[in-house]
Write a structure and sequence with these properties.
Helix content is about 25%, strand content about 20%. Helix 3 packs parallel to helix 12 (about 365-375) and helix 4 (about 190-205) packs across helix 5. Helix 6 links the parallel strand 13 and strand 14 (about 260-265). The mean pLDDT is about 95. A seven-stranded mixed β-sheet has the order 6-5-4-3-2-1-19. It has a six-stranded mixed β-sheet with strand order 7-8-9-10-11-18, covered by helices on one side. With about 400 residues, it is of the alpha/beta class.
């Protein structure tokens, strides 16, 4: 079995790994680079399409699946809930979308694709339905961590992997997103820790609280809903968020028909609904529908709105923003990007307080080290990191490979 990292050896995002055995190939992830504009034609790594048997998608984040529209027509293996979420999101996205059919990952259930045996392990990450992957061929075992952490709502899954890891791993391809970003000994906040921080921010907000986060970060949606319950506020979704939560297929994840949840539709989304005739979807999520001028403007302190920039003009027109606050609940690096500058200017113009409440979707350096030591591979190969050489501080047997370089497992 041979491997090459097509992209991701020394950058975060855009992950794409090619695996070859007996003249047949797999791709593990097909990610869009994080700095790629939505409208740009991506730089698709070159690989042997004629011998490609399948594409394995570890989790539904754009930097791991975004190149699917440019992939040849082969089966795409991923989690069933992740596939549903991407299909629910696609009509709302600017990016080109193609989410093909294929076998679904089931936790710890082996799958066979040509000469490759694949065992998926569901893990904790900020993307719902995320997997690490064990790939075997030619008597060799490659473990691909995907993106993972140990401080989210599925942390026990990763702890079980650490407590009872697969044996005889020849190569561990380990993500290193936090290297250089997070102090080595720092313990990240858990999603449970964040509940209290949100409750405190809601209490300090006299009017409407706006939370800017990704609706696809299901852990965070659960966190915000639980904080709303404690603060006696109603959580307000738009149709996009309602569709994403429904697509999880998980009855324990907040849904639009639950008590304590309402749905409001911004103008731009109303146009989308009319243009695409999404009337059945709107009706399905309208049990607790509210309106900015007649609900949010009259009693803003009763609500927490899941905020996206398409809300800005409408909230101003409705007069909803006196005493309001904006809570940014995403990676702090987004605050430095031009898209947030417009949001921040709008926030300041309307006299809104600002809070940053977030925890990483990625394991801390300490937890990466725990994971590596537990799996005890013959060789650790870093991926999904801007500092691959820093992995030497975590594990003794490390080999860094450049993008495009073939190597034997």
């Amino acid at each position: 079995m041979k491997v090459r990292i097509l992209r991701g050896a020394s950058e975060i995002g855009g992950s794409c790994v090619e695996v070859e055995s007996s003249g047949e190939r797999l791709l593990i992830d097909a990610g869009m680079p994080l700095d790629m504009p939505a409208e740009a034609l991506p730089n698709v790594p070159l690989f042997a399409e004629e011998s490609l048997r399948a594409v394995l998608i570890s989790h539904p984040h754009l930097d791991h699946y975004g190149l699917l529209p440019w992939m040849p027509p082969v089966p795409v293996l991923m989690g069933a809930a992740g596939r549903r979420i991407l299909r629910a999101a696609a009509p709302f996205m600017r990016q080109r979308a193609r989410i093909p059919d294929g076998p679904d990952f089931v936790h710890r259930r082996p799958m066979q694709i040509g000469p490759f045996s694949i065992i998926p392990f569901i893990v904790d990450h900020s993307a719902y339905d995320a997997y690490a992957l064990l790939v075997e061929a030619d008597g060799k075992r490659l473990f691909y961590s995907g993106d993972l952490r140990t401080h989210g709502r599925k942390r026990r899954l990763v702890e079980r992997l650490i407590e009872s890891p697969p044996k005889d791993i020849d190569v561990l391809m380990l993500e290193g997103t936090s290297l250089g970003r997070t102090a080595p000994g720092l313990r990240p906040l858990s999603e449970s820790d964040l509940v209290g921080e949100f409750v405190h921010a809601f209490a300090e907000t006299d009017g409407l609280a706006l939370v800017q986060t990704s609706a696809q970060n299901i852990d965070r949606m659960v966190t915000v809903y639980r904080a709303c319950q404690k603060a006696n506020r109603t959580l307000v979704l738009d149709l996009y968020a309602a569709q994403i939560l429904e697509a999880t297929g998980n009855s324990r994840v907040p849904q639009s028909h639950w008590d304590g949840i309402a749905v409001a539709i911004p103008h731009q989304q109303r146009l989308q609904i009319k243009r695409n005739e999404w009337f059945e979807a709107l009706a399905r999520h309208s049990r607790h529908r509210i309106y900015p001028r007649t609900h949010l403007a009259r009693t803003p302190s009763n609500y927490v709105l899941m905020f996206r920039p398409i809300w800005m003009a409408e909230l101003e027109r409705a007069g909803c923003l006196d005493g309001s606050s904006l809570i940014h609940s995403q990676w702090p690096g987004y605050l430095e990007r031009p898209a947030f500058a417009e949001v921040d200017a709008w926030r300041q113009r309307n006299g809104m307080d600002f809070h940053q409440i977030h925890t990483s979707g990625h394991a801390s350096p300490r937890d990466l080290q725990r994971f590596a030591v537990a799996l005890n591979p013959e060789v650790l190969v870093p991926i999904h990191t801007a500092r691959p050489k820093a992995v030497h501080e975590l594990y003794s047997k490390v080999k860094c490979h450049a993008d495009g370089e073939w190597w034997a497992v």
